[in-house]
Design brief:
Three copies of one chain form a homotrimer.
Chain A lengths: L17 H4 L7 E5 L2 E5 L4 H10 L5 H4 L28 E9 L2 E3 L7 E2 L4 E2 L5 E3 L2 E5 L17 E4 L3 E8 L12 E2 L28 E7 L6 E6 L5 H7 L2 E7 L8 E10 L1 H4 L5 E4 L11 E4 L3 E8 L5 E5 L4 E2 L6 E2 L1 E4 L4 E7 L4 E7 L2 H4 L4 E7 L1
Parallel strand pairs in A: 3-10, 9-14, 15-18, 17-25
Antiparallel strand pairs in A: 1-2, 3-8, 4-7, 5-6, 10-12, 11-13, 13-14, 15-16, 18-23, 19-22, 19-24, 20-21, 24-25
């Protein structure tokens, strides 16, 4: 897919055996897609999953009502739900977002470089991603580039998020997508999770279609949460980049001065058709390509860290420590699993250039690291 | 073992390469069994482990006392312990349980089906499990089918659990088993852990033998805990299904209206002699086969989730969130490792059909998912 | 390297296939070392990583100042920092430690034996480790054997740790090492993390060189933390054994009567050039070789458990339970990732011989277990 970006996996002075590229996990995964199980373990397999996803027809429940004759159906499948409204004093926060398929460079510096280790990174590093792209009101135009992760959706307790999602994937990927949120409250209509015969509105946004999700920022939702595709091809599409973050702030509460979201995930050959695994943060690999976070001493910092692949990660930042899950236990290194959140909060007091990285040994050296810069 | 259930791994319209079946982990593991290390990595290897286990003789300490001449022996090996009694106001709660070896269907729906994705699951799916089976008083008769997990053992703080365990494995599996509990208090005699020369009573229940464990529900044991085989062949036998749960309730405290235990684990070819890995919940794979949990709005829910294999899992339930470990951090997705417990507690307020699943991407599509149904 | 210790992997009555030795993880990892990525997946590859590390020259910033012309440089790279001093009432705690390369026996009992399962362990089990060794003041002489883990560094809140580190690796390993601490506070000069062009003093201790780290025991650092090599070859060198623990005690606070550090990690063929994987605790595998912990009833116990490899582990101790992260949730089995800490604290009340082990099934049977002995 990335065209001329594909090719040799060696550059002058850098040569890694095939297994080397795969050292941190071959990246194979099994997809259950409408009637079939498909193993995605090598470059061509993603196309098979896409073809299977293209064959998944819009379920009755996504058009009108779930058939009362569906095998295994329950009374709950016939329930009807009101659309949530903001709490008194709350507001509606609206976003327009389209799913699209940009070319995405995992190591955009040229020459490709790991600025931590001073290492030259062998190319190619561009693949066909799937990403959520922020649009202006009414999908009038793009409001920024399609990116991994997608736009961060923010609101306060008592608000309602109205998220208009359009399936803008190119025709060749003729498949449904969705947006499934974590943390916020929603009725089954706004779950965004394809469920075969039990699928409801919002859980199958076909090619060219739009859907508006309505989610409530209940008090228990304060924090940061991932959202991601949960349509018929959710596993592959999430791996490709169809994910982003929601932040629910306390009502009128204090906010961090610097708040960032960091997704830890691999981009592997079965997903990218590239020749090696990259261990990524926000779709990029290696310090200088991954987010460089800039903070001033005295600022309140919140780093929301998510896993979003098949692996478990361990988030470490040099020169700092925080209270694990807001309790009494002090840590500088915390486990985070797929779609799990850890929130690293502290007041900045230590100027300098610092590393942050996944402490899984082979992940840190395979790209899952970045710089955190503090000025006095 | 499963006889006519074994055979081709393809059915009409469904075909997965061998590696596909194994995508989520090949399921090999090393067993240390009385004098030998045995790798269980393919179908026939389990028989080798069984043969090794059959050669493990009953240690002296399991019959009378640990030999004072055992290499590495300590004064603690000669200690004698009283049998615990209930606290004032407490009671003795008795269970009769036998270990047996049922044929077990991982995907019992016919045709085999994943009701989440609407996917036809290729068979066969029956294997020879090991399971704890609830019996009536005095082992008079069976009190239910042998199942994965075994019976949930419940008591209150101050009580004593008296658990009578019989090794009812068929003659061909001529090996000792035990029951090792987590969380509750016990003396070394009731630990249920085979330890070679240091083995005590209760840590080797030979073929046809019985043993009565006595465990104390101390205040710190409030919560849910796994139990499992910890005899000479514990790793393989735990993988086969010899596990279950203990719930210790507060004395006269409030109880959940709906309380369920969910074990996350794989059943892989080295263990099952089947041709593919199944990612399971309570011994079943794929929604519609795994537990369907039914709840009414307003009910207090407690879901106790355990890992019980070589992997780490991440438990997610749609449309809900809970306080991680009872603290202040809100989550809807929590890591759980082998023999670890997470307790998901909330008051139900969101009617509909919801998914619960492991959020490890390839686990969710490989069977580790189920339905959670809420009526108004 | 271990010379005559290498050879056949079978002994009388014990034979395991090659894959068997590798069952719990092949132990391959990718190293990014000054200009190159090197896969360490088999015995000879460590030498390639060493050769690459030997080619990494001392960066300008480790000698004097970071070059203002370094690509990607920031104002923070030109900051200068004062050396921390103890708080009023605090003290300076000094250590002299050298990095060296001892021969290390993973299973030192003879005959090699797993005292838990009564299993004979096939040799060889000696490899060329890298380890931190405690020295007397001024590096006058050794103060104990080079060991895995290195010396435990202890201080109280308000103190400053002054740790003098010498690179005493044999000439054939002509590479820089460092000591990077977790938890304590330090300026960038004392981070001990090699960062290519952004490297500062203390992040490149060349062959034969010395450096003095100065770290502050701030109040939030109370607890136990790992330290480890973070030089140009950090991943391989940490795998080899260049790690240890720091314990920061509360000022004048109560201390545990028995306090131990337990590092969970694998020693695999790519690192050891041995023929099998060993799942280790503190560099040893199998009960009787791993630490045997001896405690008396009534003593306050603190076990600080760390991961220090590519894997996640699950720490379990029989017959006991503790409050997870000091909160309200009771556990006897807790997940711990690479360079993460869990602190297991309780007052001893249960005499006997107990097992402690990683509950990842194949880890427990592959050596990651030990004995915990309690006298009345």
């Amino acid at each position: 897919m990335p065209g001329s970006e594909q090719g040799s996996n060696s550059v002058a002075g850098v040569s890694i055996g095939r297994r080397g590229f795969l050292a941190a996990g071959a990246g194979a995964f099994l997809c259950s897609i409408g009637g079939q199980e498909i193993l995605v373990e090598k470059a061509g397999d993603a196309a098979k999953a896409d073809a299977a996803a293209a064959r998944v027809k819009k379920p009755a429940g996504a058009k009108a009502k779930i058939a009362a004759t569906a095998p295994g159906t329950s009374v709950v499948d016939q329930l009807e739900f009101a659309t949530p409204k903001p709490q008194p004093g709350g507001k509606v926060v609206e976003y327009w977002i389209q799913a699209t398929a940009p070319l995405w460079d995992i190591v955009p510096t040229r020459p490709r470089r790991d600025y931590w280790h001073g290492t030259r990174i062998a190319g190619p590093s561009v693949f066909r991603a799937f990403a959520y792209q922020l649009m202006t009101e009414g999908f009038a135009s793009t409001a920024g580039p399609a990116a991994i992760p997608g736009p961060t959706l923010e609101c306060e307790v008592g608000d309602v998020l109205r998220v208009h999602v359009r399936n803008g994937l190119p025709d060749k990927y003729a498949q449904a997508i969705t947006m499934h949120p974590h943390g916020v409250r929603y009725t089954p209509d706004y779950d965004g999770a394809y469920m075969g015969d039990f699928t409801r509105a919002g859980a199958y946004i076909g090619p060219g279609e739009e859907f508006t999700y309505v989610w409530e920022a209940v008090p228990e939702a304060v924090g940061a949460w991932p959202y991601h595709d949960h349509g018929p091809n959710h596993t592959l599409n999430s791996m490709r980049g169809l994910f982003g973050a929601i932040i629910v702030h306390p009502k009128n509460g204090p906010r961090a001065d610097v708040e960032r979201v960091l997704f830890l995930h691999s981009l592997a050959p079965p997903t990218t058709a590239l020749k090696r695994v990259f261990q990524c943060i926000n779709g990029r690999a290696y310090a200088g390509n991954t987010p460089t976070i800039e903070v001033k001493a005295g600022q309140r910092v919140a780093l929301h860290v998510f896993g979003i692949d098949d692996a478990f990660h361990d988030f470490h930042i040099h020169g700092h420590r925080w209270r694990k899950d807001g309790g009494n236990f002090s840590t500088d290194n915390q486990t985070v699993g797929p779609a799990e959140t850890i929130s690293v909060r502290f007041t900045e007091d230590n100027p300098g250039r610092w590393l942050y990285h996944c402490h899984v040994m082979s992940h840190q050296d395979n790209g899952m690291a970045g710089f955190y810069l503090v000025t006095p």
